Structures are given as structure tokens and as C-alpha cells.
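Entry 14. Ran structure prediction on the chain below.
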Amino acid sequence: MGKNILNTTNPNNYEYTTKHLEIHVLGGIKLNKLESLRVTISLQKPEEYTILRHSIDLYNDNQIEKFVRKIAERLEIGTSIVRRCLQDLTKELENYRFLLIDQYESSMKPYKKELSTREEKQAITFLKKPNLLKRTNDLIGKSGVIGEEYNRQTMYLIFTSRKTSNPLHCISLGSSGVGKTHLQSKVAELIPEEDKVEITVLSANAFYYFNRTELQHKLILIEDLDGAESVLYPLRELQSKKRITKTVVHKDTKGTTRTIHLTVEGPVSVAGCTTQESIYEDNSNRSFLLYIDESGEQDQRIMDYQRLISAGKINDDEEYKIREILKNVQRVLKPIKVINPYAEYLELPKSVFKPRRTNSHYLQFIEAITFYKQYQREKQYDTDTGEEFIETTIEDIQEANELIIDVLLRKSDTLTGACRNYLEELKAYLSKNTQTIFTNTEIRRNLRVKETTLRRYNKQLLEEGYIRRVKKAKTKSYCFEIIDIEEYTNLKEQINKALHRCVSQIELAI
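Output, C-alpha cells:
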């Protein structure tokens, strides 16, 4: 570098050379505490070996004056020359520190990809195509999400709802090792990086120290709810109230203690995974419960895909391109109000538990589908406020009904998801063997269920009245019998009829 210019090539040893002095700033400068400029410097005359090292605050005039005299005496140089050199150095360091701060703040700004004209046009063209949900589901499958057709599409729409004023939330449930986190992470790969926050473990107060609007319209992904147990309460409040506030004591620069409020605003969409449904009941009530497919057919699909990867027969570039297309589709979706003119006709089946919250979720899910189809809807304007909005169609409601029926079925069930899966597997086994009575030993051997797990399931089924004990006449021993083998099928049919009835009423009304 030239004379009288600060050389910052080495971040731990800045060089500043003048005609009279060679100065080194050792250890660089600190970016915090802008009210001071404390540095450690070494000075010497060019081509001389006498070196003076000193730590000093360049903003402290008294220290500077003492230092100037010390340098002048030790290096035998005029005080006016030394004073001028230190003033010029201070100005150079000050300017460089502001530059570093600007660079740091720029690097901390959330990344946001600017779409090219071609990318934007491609995404909007896709959103205008007919059968949009089916096309989207096909692309999700081609991006590397194997099976789980209903779960992956529902999850994608829930993640999309983060951009609306009333986002939805979901919890993936299933046994250990069945791919809950994998499904969530693979669908999350279709959401832009700037729109999601991925969490493994979080301390109790971590949520309160995000910037006020840092989480607005973000997707919060929790790998395992067990690892985020300490933040479940603020997370629930963020879901329900769309903001959280914490009051803390803080000392200002003058040492005065005062109370301040830390506020973080939503709305946010939250997704998590767990094996323990009953433990997280408060969170489950606010979320769609997505039960992972644990069937043998799904196992086979996944293993086949794993073999293709190992054989090098999966086109990674093609999967990457599809993920980028779906990310760009998310980026071109704009905030817009959704009005459902048919909402008054939509009634949930009487069998659904906690109908108030479930009804809200149902309506929000329909709105999420309409929101996703915004490029297929004519924009309308409120005559009083001039606010722009789009309207839900009967097609949106029908597509929502197809996707949500399993969610409503689970919400209407008195059993936990794991216990229901066991009961349905048990029914299939008994039906195959044309029997209604079974013993614990027989089921443990044929369904490969642990004894403790089996006893827990049977206890729940007995308490809820799904099975009963039967005493064998010959051996006087006890076995179990399913009371109503068709109860779940009947419940599903009942919900299906209720949803179809709503659509029929709408069609008659218009």
C-alpha cells in the first residue's frame, strides 16, 4: 500500500507508515464500544530498531498527550509530528471501523434471493396451470419425497400458509425410526432458506431475543419436540396470540436499572416431530397431526429408493432443479386476503373433538389452498376499504376435504395415533385369519409387538371399550375380543358424508 494509507491486509497487524514513523496496530480493532478506540500499537522510526509498544485509547486526549511526549522523548522526534501522525492514524482506524460495521450488518441481513425474469415467469406459469395441487404433489414426489402422498401435500400447504395472516401448524407422529424428521426436512427443502428457521435445541429464553419482526411469516422447524421442551410454552403463545413478550431488568450505559419489554411478533408456522403424542397435547391441539405411513408397502418404497441411490440411478441434478422450481413458486406468492363466501355452509361432523379449534383449522386450510391458487383467482376490491382480496371456490373446498379427511378422522378418534395403528393392524390380522378372538402371546408373536407396549395398548382399548375380555370355557383362561370391527370404517364414512353434505348444500345454494 502507498504512504499514509492504512494497510489492513493482515487483520491482526495493521500497518500505517509515514515519512517519520512506522506504526503497527496489533490485534486489530474492536467493533463494539464505539465511544472508545482502544488499540495496542508499536512505533519505530523507519529503518531503526528502537521500538515503543503501548496500549492506549485513541479517543482519550490526556492519554494521547502523555503518549506523544513519551514517543518524542524515546524516539527523538518532534511532538508536533507525532501528534499529527496519531491524529491521522485515528481517523483512518475510525473510517475502517465504520466500514467493518457496515460489512458485518450487511452479512447479518437475512438472505433473500432475487428471481430472474425467467425464473419468475416459470413459477407464475406453473401456478396458473390447471390441477395445480396434483401437479405440485407430483413435483414433490420427483424432488425426492417417497410415498406419503397425502402427508407431503398437506405439509407443503401448511408450510405455504406461513405467508398468510393465519398460518397453520403441524406435528408429525410415528414410531422411532419411521422417517418423521426425514419427511419434514425433505418437504422443508422446498421452502426458501430465507423463510425458515431450523431448530435442534433451544434454551428457555431464546425466542425472546430474536429481533421484533425477525420471525414474522417464518416457518419454524423443530427436529424433535423433546429437544425443545423448554420453549414449548412461548411457542404455543406465538402460535395463538401471534406475539410473545418478556419483561426483564436491564442496566443502561449510565448504570441505571430499568424494566424493558422484549417483544417478538408473529405470525409463524410451526412444524415438529415426536413419538409422544399425549405428552404434547397442548401443542397438538393447535396443530394438524400427520401420522407417518408405517406400512410394509411404504417400507418397500423407501428401501427401493435407497437402493437406486446406492446404484447411482437417481438424477440428483433433476431433483435439485425441481426443488428450486418449488422454492421459486413460494417466492412469487404475495400476501393477499382470502375470503370464503361459502364458510357459513361448512359444518364439521359432530364426532370431532375440540370442534372450535378444529373448525378454525378446517377453514384456515381451505384458505391456504385458495392462497396457493392466487394466480388463478380474479382479484377483487372491498368497496369500503379498497382492500384487495380473492375468493374461495367450491373446487378449493372439495380438494381440502380430500386432504383433511384423515386429519378429521384422527381428531374424532378417542385413541392415540399409535394405539389406533395397532388396533387397525390387529383388525387386519384377525380378518385375514377369519377370527375375532386373540391372545397376547399370539399377537406378540405374529405382529412383533413388545410385551410392555402390547399391555399398554390393550389397557387403553379396554378402557375405551374397543375390546373386551373373554373367558374360554375349556381352559378357563382369558383372551380378548374386538367389540366392533367396523367402527373406524363407519366413523370415516360418517365424516365423509358430513363433508359431502356441506358441498351439496353450497351447490344447491348457488
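The first strand starts at residue 13 and ends at 17. Will compare against last week's run tomorrow.
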